[in-house]
């Protein structure tokens, strides 16, 4: 009798985060997040408009453009960011719909590296670890620095392969 191999816990929970992301109706990106304590799943969330309000698929994206000055290797650079402000990010929804007591000492698996705003919120949420898959290079340096200062484990699952049925085509 052969023994079937089991997925490791990181793969298992990231797979769930990707499955949760399929609930998103954002045309730009589907993001899912899960809250885990030990090996127990405590909550899930995805990015989208507030309940009862038209979402991006119904009303279109509300794009806000920002320009940020960053200093890299002593050289100032302007970085242009476009964000849809119609949607609440998956990490924000996860914090809105879970209890602080459940978050204390927990981990968050999220399909995408948190943006600066979400990282700030997660830093004060009681979690001790953030595991993500897809990088968000525009905020990586300052988010990584914040996590180091807070003592929050922050890691990317670089060799992870999402379930095929969760992959979306991003429209421009």
Descriptors:
single chain; 172 residues; alpha/beta; two-stranded antiparallel sheet; 6 helices; 27% helix; 28% strand; Deoxycytidylate_deaminase_dom; Cytidine_deaminase-like
Largest sheet: 5 strands, mixed
Helices, by number, come to 6
Q: In total, how many beta strands?
A: 7
Major sheet: arrangement of strands: 2-1-5-6-7
Determine Rg (CA atoms, Å): 17 Å
Mean pLDDT: 91
Shape verdict: globular
Percent of sequence in beta strands = 25-35%
> How would you describe the oligomerization state of the chains in this entry?
single chain
- What is the string of helix and strand elements? HEEHEEHHEHEHE
Distance between the termini: 50 Å
Helix content class: 25-40%
Cofactor: Zn(2+)
InterPro entries: APOBEC/CMP_deaminase_Zn-bd, CMP_dCMP_dom, Cytidine_deaminase-like, dCMP_deaminase, dCMP_deaminase-rel, Deoxycytidylate_deaminase_dom
Protein name: dCMP deaminase family protein
Keywords: Hydrolase, Metal-binding, Zinc
What does it look like?
The protein is an alpha/beta fold. The protein has 6 helices and 7 strands; from the N terminus they run αββαββααβαβαβ. The strands form 2 sheets. The protein has a 5-stranded mixed β-sheet with strand order 2-1-5-6-7, sandwiched between helices. A two-stranded antiparallel ribbon has the order 3-4. α5 runs parallel beside α6. The longest helix is centred in the first third of the chain and has 13 residues. The protein starts with 8 loop residues before the first helix and ends in a 16-residue tail after the last strand. The mean pLDDT is 91. Pfam families: dCMP_cyt_deam_1.
């Amino acid at each position: 009798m052969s023994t079937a191999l089991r997925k490791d816990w990181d793969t298992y929970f990231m797979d769930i985060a990707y499955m949760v992301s399929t609930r998103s109706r954002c045309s730009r990106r589907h993001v899912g997040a899960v809250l885990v304590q030990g090996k127990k799943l405590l909550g899930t969330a995805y990015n989208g408009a507030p309940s009862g309000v038209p979402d991006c698929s119904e009303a279109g994206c509300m794009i806000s453009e920002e320009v940020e000055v960053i200093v890299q290797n002593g050289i100032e650079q302007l970085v242009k960011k476009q964000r849809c402000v119609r949607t609440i990010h998956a990490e924000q929804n996860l914090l809105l719909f879970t209890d602080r007591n459940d978050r204390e000492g927990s981990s968050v698996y999220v399909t995408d590296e948190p943006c600066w705003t979400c990282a700030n919120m997660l830093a004060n949420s009681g979690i001790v670890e953030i595991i993500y898959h897809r990088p968000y290079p525009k905020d990586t340096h300052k988010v990584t620095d914040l996590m180091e200062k807070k003592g929050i484990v922050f890691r990317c699952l670089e060799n992870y392969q999402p379930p095929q049925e969760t992959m979306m085509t991003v429209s421009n």
